[in-house]
Design goal:
The structure holds 2 protein chains of 2 kinds. By secondary structure, chain A is mainly alpha-helical. Helices cover 73% and strands 1% of the residues of chain A. In chain B, 46% of the residues are buried. Classes of the chains: A mainly alpha, B alpha/beta. The interface between A and B is medium-sized, with 19 and 26 residues.
Chain lengths: 291, 216
């Protein structure tokens, strides 16, 4: 059995187990699967194009916000994927434009997007037909958790398989060449611009759909969806990056650890995030050397 | 086949190339000159990695001055860096496969293995490029270039940073390319090193062509 098959089988097991657990754990697993998709969308950009983004809250949070407003104003649910698609295209355009900066500037620029949205989101207060968002955010009617879990686990599975297939494809090989050296890739005949566009589109698309799942799951959205915590989440979850299953497991561990630590001391998990961020260069070097 | 017509290049106020014109017909042309004479800039302009300030590049009578580097590779003009720039996190085989991808054919893996064998690096196909020595990296760079099935190879100082043993191996490979009828533009510091390979020479100094000597 190949490593890829084993990874897919392991993911299926992780996705099926919650079906037999009580409501609380199903809810928690659902949240973890959404954040795992979010992490994989980020990982697609980092691993295949070498761009570390701290701005993936842009497609993730914006889709959640806009979809929440649309649901609040009674737009049919089947229109929501369209919103995710549109936000993904806008985000991809912004990421692509930013990708002309060097790698370090890219990190800071994308981080700036998260901060700007975080600061701007409290101003979303629609008074026409009453939607009081602001600092508190707003809620929409709740959907059955089992149904949302079914969608979110399918999304995670599709994202995971897509990444494995892409990694082993000709397109994936071209992306990795661009990641390692853009000019050398150009000199060998790769259309670097096209590859970067595709990478931004794929990455934004999965992040947007994860954002859509987030609002369907939580039924509530507030400015904290753009928080620094969410911006750095994928980076922390994939700090031990090896294959594609590691970021998924990392996301699950972070979600479970956050909830557990929160019950002991509120916001204590941020301390854990800070420690991982501080030692991340060493951890990255270790995982890169291993790879 | 390849014509460089009145090409100049200026960085801010620094003139690197002044009205350079040359022609590559069915031969291997050596471009010789000291450091900073503009040899590498000229090759990079021909490869499309830099735009000239003025002048034209013609390939088969078609103006390719505005064409991107990747499009020029599709036409058959490919550039090899002076200091090899492999895709470090990929294996040797993957590096060569990327070169093969440009032609979109089938059996890319088999073609890449064949090229690795030809270049004498088939024992390294599963090694990551980051662990290779300078000599091996040079051979990988040449393998990657050959994989694109080029018509003209632009070689920027192929013997730079190599010891005698590795320089000899690279020279043998270039002679093999010559026997395979590849057209090449090769830069070097001295005539001597290109004597057995090139059919003609151009001497370039301070961005200007000083001597043009082409046999036959």
């Amino acid at each position: 059995m190949s490593k890829k098959t084993l990874e897919i089988a392991a993911l299926i097991v992780i996705l099926v187990i919650p079906m037999f657990l009580n409501f609380y754990y199903l809810w928690l697993f659902c949240l973890a699967s959404i954040f795992a998709t979010y992490t994989l969308s980020w990982f697609l950009m980092e691993k295949l194009c070498g761009r570390t983004s701290f701005g993936h809250t842009l497609p993730f949070g914006l889709t959640a916000y806009i979809a929440a407003i649309a649901i609040f104003f009674k737009y049919p649910l089947y229109l929501m994927p369209l919103i995710a698609l549109l936000v993904a295209m806008v985000s991809a355009t912004i990421f692509y434009a930013t990708s002309f900066l060097d790698r370090v500037k890219f990190v800071f620029a994308t981080f700036l997007y998260s901060i700007v949205l975080w600061e701007f989101a409290p101003f979303v207060v629609i008074k026409g037909d009453v939607l009081y968002g602001g600092e508190e955010g707003f809620s929409i009617p709740m959907l059955p958790t089992k149904a949302v879990y079914l969608f979110s686990s399918c999304l995670l599975f599709v994202t995971f398989v897509f990444l494995i297939v892409l990694h082993n494809s000709k397109l994936g090989l071209k992306m990795m060449a661009v990641r390692d050296d853009e000019e050398a890739a150009l000199a060998i005949g790769i259309n670097v611009k096209q590859i970067k566009v595709l990478n931004c589109v794929f990455s934004s698309l999965f992040a947007s759909f994860a954002g859509l799942m987030y609002i369907l799951h939580f039924s509530h959205v507030d400015p904290d969806i753009f928080s620094v915590e969410n911006a750095v989440f994928p980076f922390i979850a994939s700090v031990f990056a090896g294959g594609y299953l590691v970021p998924v497991i990392g996301s699950y561990i972070l979600i479970f650890a956050s909830k557990y630590l929160n019950s002991i001391l509120p916001q204590f998990h941020l301390f854990l995030y800070a420690i991982i961020l501080i030692i991340s260069p060493k951890l990255r070097r270790f995982s890169n050397a291993r790879g | 086949m390849l014509v460089v017509k009145n090409v100049s290049k200026t960085y801010n106020s620094n003139v690197v190339l002044k009205d350079v014109s040359l022609e590559l017909k069915k031969r291997i042309l050596g471009i010789v000159g000291p450091n900073g004479s503009g040899k590498s800039t000229l090759l990079r302009i021909i490869a499309g990695l830099e735009k000239p300030s003025c002048g034209k590049i013609l390939f088969r009578d078609k103006d390719i001055t505005r064409l991107n580097a990747n499009k020029r590779v599709e036409l058959g003009i490919v550039y090899a860096f002076q200091i090899p720039r492999p895709f470090y996190r990929l294996t040797v085989l993957e590096n060569v496969m990327i070169g093969c991808l440009i032609r979109n054919g089938e059996n890319i893996r088999e073609r890449a293995i064949k090229i690795c064998k030809m270049m004498g690096i088939d024992h390294l196909i599963n090694a990551k490029a980051k662990v290779l020595s300078q000599g091996e990296l040079k051979l990988l760079e040449l393998a990657r270039v050959i994989a694109t099935e080029p018509e003209i190879i632009l070689l920027d100082e192929p013997f730079a940073a190599l010891d005698k043993k590795n320089a000899k191996v690279v020279k043998e490979k270039l002679l093999e390319f010559k026997r395979m009828n590849y057209r090449m533009l090769i830069t070097a510091h001295r005539f001597k090193i290109l004597r057995d390979i090139a059919d003609g020479f151009v001497e370039i100094k301070e961005g200007k062509i000083r001597r043009y000597h082409v046999e036959g």
